[in-house]
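Researcher: Hi, I'm a grad student and pretty new to this. My advisor asked me to get structures for two proteins we've been looking at. I'm not sure of the right format, so I'll just paste the first sequence and hope you can take it from there.
Model: That works fine. Here's the first sequence with its structure tokens right after it:
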Amino acid sequence: MEFPLSPGLILSLIVVVMGIVVIAKGLVIVRQSEVMVIERLGSFNRVLESGINIIIPFIEQPRAITMIRYKKMGEEYLPLTSDEVRIDRRETVMDFPGQPVVTTDNVTVTINGALYYQIIDPKRAVYEVENMSQAVEVLAKTTLRSVVGKMELDKLFESRAEVNNEIQASMEEPASKWGVKISRVEVQDIAMPEEVESAMRLQMAAERKRRATVTEAEGEKSAAIAMAQGQRESSILNAEGDKESAILRAQGEQESIKLVLNAIGESEENKRTVVGYLLGQSYIKALPTMAKDGERVFVPYESSALLGSMGMFREMAGSPEDSVRQHLNSNASQSGLRSGMLGGASSGS
């Protein structure tokens, strides 16, 4: 069974199809963190935010933005260029290839860096610069050369954070004109020529050797100081001990002389006899020590006479110790006799 197609039906079908196409073209869904720049008849009209948006087909068109991204292929970076109508407002990282930079001390190093940026004004990013990503990359490279060119090689290794902050501060003003915010810049790797690297290794080894030598010398110095202090304290203690020992010996000799004099009497002749005897004992004690130092011993005349007097003293009266002993015995016998006499008198009465 055939249905006749009238001109009105065909026209209605055409209108319906055109309406579906218009609705499909005019209904735009923008995802979160993305925006679209819309132009009406070639001029800027508005920016579409995330959500469902309606545009007029064939009259309003999204404006594309050119983006350059690098893809690492082995040791090389391959640039990939694309035109995107959906502008990503998230923070984006640009890992650009290593750049040769000459430092103040004329050393050429290759620096590989990473740039983190974010599009905050899509209108400026599209209309204020032809190729936003390329402009940011070139600005980062030139700023890197300018900042590193003011530093020496050793300072560059010590001040990576300072280099990052200075590059970021230098890029903020020109990047803000393009609607871009520079979040941070990171210097990832610094490659040096082989001869410079070898020289730095030798310098590092020499520096470590110098530090080890200084540390060893300081240790020996501390040990010598500690040993000297220990010897000083030991000498002081020995001297104090000798002093106390000499005092005690002198006190003992003084007490012994007093006991001898009390035993035999304190006349001048007895005093000279006791003093001569004590001096003779000192000579006798010193003779073995004198004999150790050589085969011959020279004794002064006074000492020989003194030794002779000691012999005579012993022959005539015995030693002072014997005199003390006799004196004590006589005292004991007298005390016994007196007690006996007192006992007999009492018994007679």
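Researcher: Oh nice, that was easy. Here's the second one.
Model: And its structure:
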Amino acid sequence: MATPILADSVRLADDGVHILDRRVFPFERVWVHCRTVEEVAKAIEDMVTQSSGPYFAALWGMVLAARAAADLPRDEARAALGVAGDRLIASRSTNNHLGKAVRAVLSEVDKDDGDVVESALRGARAGDELYRARSRALGEYTVDLLPDGARVLTHCWADLYLTETVAAAQRRGKELSFFCTETRPYLQGARLTAETLAEMGVPTTLVTDGMGASLFSQGLVDALVTAADRVSMDGHVVNKIGTLGLAVAAKAFGVPFHAQVQAPDRAAPTAADVPIEYRDGDDVLHTLGRRTASTRVQGLYPAFDVTPPEFVTTVVTDRGPLGPAHLNQYYEQVEP
């Protein structure tokens, strides 16, 4: 099966980083050309790329920073990379993937005094391969939790976590079908999730964000499966706004909620340690560029919400499924 286009939507080239514009996908396939770190950071801020896309953008953005600093003395080049990394991390505050990407590159640069561009490129490639490998493992563990014929409700765009889950099911001959919430206001579920699932040949039904509880009540869903932008060590799941409501409804109707994340975040002992990004409230007053409310009202847009552990059945990691009260076990396992 061919790789879905959104699984390879950030690419490094000689002339910069090319990012598939998810704001207009699937109606248009436009690649945004970023020649500098600042342009990469701005693309992340402007939602050109989302979910794991910013991780890959940060990896290759750090290579651009290394290219720009190639003629500087080693200590000045390293300082410039540090500044570039801080800028990329600041472009999205809730998801901690950008920090992981930056550290993957800087750790390789700091290993020796060799060519800074080559070191950055090695670090970025290693970070790319590691993320994909961990997503494959996570997908396999998720499929273990889903019976053959499972009807899955997902929310927003889970990116490689979702595509690897589907690929793992297909390798095993398990048939899955999906309900996708449309995910206001950017409609990632409608434009990204549903399109990619259809591209992979999976039966897919689009529903509005408010339909989840009704589907649960009718027994039409066997599992709620979403990604998580972060999971705190005390079991709180931070994900796209709307996840909390679905998780509460799933609990009420006895539907398990499996939250996918490569690893719980040791830098976030509690949910209070995770900054919640607020985006421009004007976004919720529009859909695909068309205003949907009058000028007499205002909008509020917290981009993420926090689901308490009592509404989470399983946190699926790349080292296996864990109960939300036992996330410390992830770090008790031997490092890969």
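Researcher: Is there anything I should tell my advisor about the second?
Model: You could mention this: DSSP finds ten helices and 15 strands in the chain.
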